[in-house]
Structures are given as C-alpha cells and as structure tokens.
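Reviewer 2 asked us to include a model.

Predict the structure of this chain.
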Amino acid sequence: ENATVFSYADLQNFDSSMIHVQNQNTAWGSQVREGELVRYQVKAKNSNVEGATVIIKDATGLPLYELTTDAFGFTQEVSLPSDFLLDRNWNHVVGDKNAAIPGSNDGTGQPIVVDEDSCSDGIDNDGDTLVDGDDNDCITGRERPFYSVEAFKFGSGRDDFSYVLTGPIDDVINLENLRPSVSVNEPDGYSFATTVRITGQAWDGAKWPYANDNTAQQAQFGKIKRVEIQPPGSSDWFYASDMSGSNGDITMETHPFKDWVYEWDGAAHPEGEGDITFRIRSYDGLDYSPIEVRQYKLNLVAPSLLVDVPTSGSEHRTGKVMFQGTASDPYQGTAGSDVKQIWFSISGPDDFAQQFFIQGSTSWSYQWNVAELPSGEYTATVWAADSDFCIGEAVLADGCVAETRTVKINNDNVPPNLQLSWIGAEDQSSGGIDGDTVRASTDTKIIGVARDIGGFVTRVEIEITDLANGIVLNDGPLPVTNFAVDGSWEATWDTSKLVHDSVYSVAVRAYDGDDYSEWSVWRMTINNPLDAENIDPVFNETGWVGTWTIFCDQNSNSFDRCGGGVSFDLAEFFNDPDGTGSPGDDLEFYVYDDEETIEDDFYDDFITITPLGVLTYDPMSYMAQTTSDIPEWSLNGVVVYAQDDQESKAYSLKVNFLVRAVSFTVERADSGDITANDPATFQGEGLPGSLVIARFAEGNAKLNSTRVLSDGSWSMDLTAGQLSGVEGKSDVIFEMDGQIFKFAGQNDNAEFAIVVSSGGDDGSGVVGIILIVLAVLVLLGAGAFFFIEFEDVIDEDELTGDDAPEEEDPYAWAKAKQTPSIPQQASVAATQAAPAAQEAAAPAASQHPGWLWDQASNQWVPDPNYQQPPQE
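Predicted model (structure tokens):
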C-alpha cells in the first residue's frame, strides 16, 4: 500500500512531538521513522581498503544499502531506522504512550491501548518472527531493530557481523584475510646433483578442486603475489618462477603460482657436499603462508670404489665367485652413507652379457653364482653409485670410478655343496647347532642340505668321533641316499647309550660320484642322565646383564679399592622344572671352561659362587695378585652353568666383567664468589659408593660430603650457609676414603680458593660495624678481667717492705697476672730476700703463647720460635 514516510536522524532541537501527521484512512498511511546515522571505515591489516563493498541488511535479510568505500576506506553516512512511530489514536501526533485506538475493543468494552512505537508498527523489527505484542521485548520495553553487515573485497578479505541498533555508529570493519598456502613436491632427504631444482604449488584461501571459475574465485578470494625461497646460508629471500601459465587470472583449472619452480646452483656451496636446508613461503599481498622447511642432500662428487677380491686371473671351480670390497662417498649428513648401489657389468664367452646392481654399502660383498655358466674367461666391471651419480653407467665425465676384474670359470666338475642345519630332537625341543647340548635319545635327528651343481648328490656320509678318546664310533648313522627335491636330507642317530656329558664330533660330507664336498664338523655334548625322565635345567635370559662395569680406585692401597666388585643371584635366571622350586637347593652352579680357548682357564679361580648361587667377582680377592694393570682385571665372555642332581646342565649367555680404573679427581664446575644465592659447585670422579668430604685447609673442619654415584661421578655444592661466619677468601681441600686430592705431579694437598661474599657493599659495612663493636667489647672485657685480678694480688712492695713510691710499670698487667699464683707460695716468698722474690715473680710463658718474659728489660718480648698449634 502507498504510505508517506518521514525519516529523520541526528537533528538538533527536534523530536517526534513536533511532527504533525495527517492520516490517510489508515494508521500506516503516514509513518515516522526515527533513525541513527551509520558509517564504516574498512581496513585490512590496519591499512585502509578502497573499493570494498559493505552491504547492510535488515532483520529479514533484505539489503537496505550497498556501499563502496572511498580512498580512505570510508563508506557514505546512511540512516538506519531505530524506531517506527504511527498515529494510532488519530490525534495527528506520533509517539504517544498508552494511546487508545478508536473503534477498537479489548473484549471488555474498552478500546485497545498501545504505545505508538515499534511495538505497534506491525513489523518484526528484531528478526525473531514475533510481531508487536507477541514479542516479549514489548513487555519490558520495545522491539529494537536488528541489522546484519557483510563487508568484502577480493584480495583483502571478508567480515560478517550483526547487531541491535541502539545509537549512532561510526566504526571500523577489519577484514579477515585467509592466509595463503604453499606446498613442496620434493620431500626431506631428496638428493640433488649440483643444481637444486625445487617445485611445488601455492594457493590463496581454499585449495582446489573447484566446480567452476566463479567457485574458484570465491574459494581463493585472492591471488598469490609471489613464492619466496631462502637458500642455505642466506638471510635473504629469493623469488620462485610462476609456471602456472594463468596470466594472472583465476579459473577452475589454474591460478597464479599454482605451479612454481626455483633453481639454486650448489656447485659453489662453501660447505661442499652435505645437508642443505631451504625455507619456502608464499605471499598474497597481505599475509605470508606458514613456512615449509626442507632438508635436502647436496651431491657434488661421485662415489669411489675398491675391489679387494677376486684378483684378475684367478680361477674358480666351486660354482661361485665372491666379489668383495669397499666404497666411499664424501656425503656425511643425517641420511648416513650415500653409497646406494654397487653395479656389475659382466661379459664372457658366447656373447654373455649381464648388468645388475646390489644394495650399496661402504663395505660390500656379492657372491656371483656361476655354476650354470660355460667355462671360460669373464670380465666384470664394478662401480659404485650414489643418489645421483653413476646410476646404471660409469660415466667418466661425471667422475665415476670403475674397477675391472678378469676371472677364469671352470665348471667341468664342481664338488657338491653340503650344509648342516640341526642335530637334536625332531621337534627341536632339544639340541641345536654346533656347540649345543643334545638330549640322549634313540632317534636323534641329523638334518642338512646337499646340492650339486650340474649333477646330483649320490650320498651323504656321517662320521661320529668320541673326542674323549679319539675313537670313531662304528655304530653311527648309515650313509644317506634319499634326498628331497630341494636337496634336504635327514639321518637318525642313536645317542641313548652314549656317555653323559661327553663331547662328540659329527662330521658330514656329500659325494656326487666324482668329488666329495668339504667336511662339515659340529661338536655336540650328550646329555644322558641316569634318570631318563629327568628334565634339564632351564636358563631364563630375562633381566640378564651382558656387561657389568666394576670401578677400582687407581691410587688406593685399600683392599676394598674395587668397592667389593659385583654380585648377583644366579638363582634368578636358572630353575629346575622337576625340582623343589628352590634353584639354590636344586642346582649347583659353576663357571664354564671352554676347552677350545685358554682365555677362560682361570675364570673359576677369579669368580666365586656360593652354594645358593650368588656369583661374585671382586678383582681384589685374587685377580689383583696376578697383575697390577687394572684393565687386565676385566673378564670377557664368561659363561656359567647350572647342573641338577642328574648332571644335566643349562648354560647361560655370555657376560663380560669390565674393570675400569678410576682416580679421585676434583674440579670446580663454576667460578665467582659464593653468595647466598650462588654456591660453588665442585665435581669429579671417584670410586662408586665412596664418601667425598670437603674440609677447610686450615683446621681441617668438615664443610660438606657426598657419595660417588654408580657411574663413578660425584658433585657437591658449597653454600653460604655451610660457610656461615666465614667472610673473604678461604682454602678448601677434598678427600675420599682417606685420600686427600693432589694435583698431578704435586706432593702437596690441592687447595681450592673460595671467596664468600655478602653480596653488596652495604652488607659489608654493617658486618664491619658489628665486628668492630664486638672487638671493643672483647677488649673492655679483657681490661676488666686484668683489673679484677690486679686487685687480688699481694703488692710486691709489701713483700719487700719498701714504702717508697715506685715508677709506674707499663707491663704491670703481665706481672700482676703471674704474682698471685697460690697463697701458700706467697707466704713462703715473703720470708725470702727481695732478689729471690723477683725471680719467683717471673711469669710463666705458657700462659701467654707467642711471648717471653725478658728479665733484663723487665718486659714481654715476642717468642722467635713460636709456632701456631693446629686447630682441632
């Protein structure tokens, strides 16, 4: 319907009561809208945005204004209605309170009463779908208008917000820009030969795919301005090249810097071949992307190679040629060796040609199987390849190093090849490999594999020898003549009547009709207890320590210089399944002596094992008597075994006892004065478990102590609290187990100077004043003491009977101190002559250490032979 609308905002000396309304047959025919002035300034990253679009919408989402910012980022100033006024009582005035609507009836015969504001305008002002009296806001007040704002500019960002209008608005809109992103195609550890070429993608906003061009523009809502790379060793950023071909446009297929590339010449890199780090980021004009960091391998030099075997001209008749050698590469980065492949190019008779590679290593080997090749001379060219150089071809221009070997292959007849796999029970619950123990049985299995190149194995011969007497058993297994397709074979050996705990050698060889293979010999110990049902002891390696370290004091003469060595309970690792459950009672423990080596011949003398299984190795108990060289006290490859009452055994894993010589050392770990908040820290090495004590060099008073840790190290702090009452410089010594630390090559005790500081001049002044006051009090007390003593002395004038006045003696205090020793002596002295009395009055020097009484001068003089006694 048509209506006349009067809107106003920010008028001086004017309000709604000054408006005359002429209704046009309806209350809504003439409308008054009281408004507020609204203006925005748009910014991005605190910079004014020109040309940004600002759309203001009402509560229903209907756009009211679409504004564009000027060069300073400001929109035009517009008016937004904050209240809607109607003349509902037809009195030509709007905004009345409790206005009665003519012709209406509230149901009681009375007219309907309303306030002429937004609660009676028939509009949902706040967007809650409730109109006028149905809105709870009209119970406590009125409906307040609700507006939403959308601001945006391509390349600068977006912002959306809403509010309830309560007054004028002059505000700033800060656009939110989505940060750009960048990705790198080459992962960490990628290798580049001389020239580094990095590629990747970059995008602003959201990444592809996009449904169409418009979606692509809205999703990105900006363009990548550049991609920057910081190469190794540089603080500058360099630009990558745009490879997208977009010409600056955004489409669903492409956009600026969708693909980019950066090249860097590493030939002049000052650090040479190694790891290099690049930092990559993109920029959209406002923000940088998160930085991508990549660490690559710079490869400048081809690897080198040496072939140790075979030698040129060597002949091979076994069907195999072993190649072995070393390779090296200058790269020493985090990825380890860059020797990736060892290449072989082999040529021979009848146009034979073969090229292949094996996994590279600094120490490499390869066994070439030539059993099916015709006899003749073969030439092998071998070279190493790294991540970039010499791959597939040894190009001399690239610095590739190749070695050539010419060998003779003789395959006229190759002896068979045999290998032993297992000797023991078929279910492998007992037995094992060379050197293991076999449980006696009527059907002990001997299992192996025998093959022949260019033919077949006709038989396998087995020879059993009792090593105790060197006799070959004549009741051993018969030759094997049946073989599986893969060459595996099996023989049965009756060990049920063999001597318990004896060692037998099992020698096996194969025959192909022309030649024998080499003997394969294993030594097996037979476990044949009297009780056939006896179950062997079991060793459990859980918690077993492979190496024990024992520290021995290098400078000590104490019998405990190794701290008692090391001890552990073997009963924790062995048990007897058919015993009582107490390994210490069921088993006996011994140190194993391997007859094949002399190194362990005296291990059982050096190591003690108690009947309950506690093993102890203390080098001081016996080993120290054989040599004074502490490192020679170490025991390597010690094996112990447990034996049950049927003499069945279980062997442990090897254990090493490493003896390390330690000496008492001291060093200060910090510097400077000791204050209340900063102690002096000392550290060093010593015998684990020993007590390290810090003392004053003068007086030997103890300051602090600590224990040496299990790894032979110790640390101690000397704090201001421990040095309470000490000011200035003091010397400290350290001792361990009666040893006082001395510097190398010195005979005197090592003294460490420490200085205790109060921390400030003011504190020092206060302490000085206190010390002076105390000194004065001490002197006053001493004077009072001598004065009181003088009053008790019988005057020497009274002894001589001379009443004449005598000249004042400046050393009277000393004489007075000595004269009244004992009353009885005084009475005797009174009967003697004056010279005798004077000699008796000579003071005792022991009561004044450091001073002597000079009879000639009648005064105290310094004692030239006095020495300060040691303090307790």
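DSSP finds nine helices and 58 strands in the chain. Residues 761-767, 783-805, 810-842 have pLDDT under 50 and may be disordered. We have added this to the supplementary material.
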